[in-house]
Amino acid sequence: MNWEPVLGDDTESWELVPNTGSRPPSSPQGMSGGGGSARPEERRRFPPPGKSLPISALRENGLLQALVQGAGQPAGTEISEELRRARQEWEAVEESQSGLGGTLASAAPLISFNEALQYFQTADLSECRKKVRVTARRQGLAALVRFLFGPPRLQPQLQGERELALAMAQCGLDDNERVHMRILQTIYKKLTRSRLGCPRYGAHWEELGFQGADPGTDLRGTGMLGLMQMLYLVMDSQTLPLAREIFKLSQHETQNFPFCIMSVNITRIIIQALREERLSRECNRRQQVIAVLNDMYTAAFLQLYHVWKWQHKTVADSGFLLKELELSTKKKPKQLLKSLEAYVNKSPAADGLQELSPASTSGNGSRAGEEINFTGVCDLQVELEGEARLI
């Protein structure tokens, strides 16, 4: 078989033409002559050179079958070594393009936050629930002060929802769970604006702000709740512009930072605030838990983005900023939520962020020259208050 160019009105495409021993004559315009020996069903159109074609489309066009069967050999005959190698190469290409355990990642539909949440509500999380510690431990004077002056406890009817959130935080990313993979692919597609998926492992995850080729290694400590909060940020129409603006800033030449690692840090802060019942008042008021967690996460990310952008922060400042954000989340959650409400009501578009007044922070917020080490979430002692740093 030969690849032959075919000129159309304004594009050039390629056709796969069976070998017949001699090439059919071509017309002056480059079209195959009417006397060509190739039958219509034998001629397959392919896109111009340089344009990608899904493996599934190649299969439909018969190319892989031709490779497997030996370019015209009847099925069942012995395959030559050259064709065998070609088939293996195609299978390797298909595997490299697969992100969902054998199916093309691009074929996986986007998943909404509510659909993903319904999955976790019905999934068997019994092993994850065994690892949950609902509230932070306090003893002695700290326990007495908490009882007398601390925030209110979460109402009984909301405790099940809190346990679900904490169970998700104990649930690791599982390659065999299709919903997990759809969540991962949805985050990738929404942030990169790509209609195509991506392989489960690879350097493309580092470009999104994970530490390595496997996002799952960065989720220990926040688990699937870390991905669920990212999913919420990119799938809500009011917060998607914010997500993309934050992601854009994370790619800045000098103000860059790892987007997904920063997101995981914020989720960790939210988990700790929940366990210390710093968010119980708001949860009781709204009679919701997970929705409050998502709003707190978004509000905290908005605050971090605003300070980072307008005060020209860099990765060297991240430890201090995360510490400030942890204190704000635990001490002033209502103020953070009001800032988010103002952003959403004033301008759902991302440029509305420019109208916010600069946030005040204690000190100059700078640790010039200090190097931040990117360590795994599993190295953090999340039970200890004041341990916020870039992981």
Description:
- There is one protein chain.
- This protein has 391 residues and is mainly alpha-helical.
- The chain contains 16 helices and 3 strands.
- The chain has a 3-stranded antiparallel β-sheet, with no helix packed on it.
- Helix 7 packs across helix 10, helix 10 packs across helix 12 and helix 12 packs across helix 14.
- It is globular, with a radius of gyration of 27 Å.
- The relative contact order is 0.09.
Estimated share of beta-strand residues: under 5%
Helix content: 40-55%
Number of strands: 3
Write down the overall geometry.
globular
- The helix/strand series, from N terminus to C terminus, equals EEEHHHHHHHHHHHHHHHH
Spans of at least 5 consecutive residues with low confidence: 6-18, 21-53, 55-60, 62-73, 93-104, 348-389
Q: Please give the order of strands in the largest beta sheet.
A: 1-2-3
Task: Give the biggest sheet.
Answer: 3 strands, antiparallel
The whole-number mean of residue pLDDT values reads 74
Structural class of the secondary elements? mainly alpha
End-to-end distance: 55 Å
**If you compute it from the alpha carbons, what radius of gyration comes out, rounded to the nearest whole angstrom?**
27 Å
SS field, number of helical segments = 16
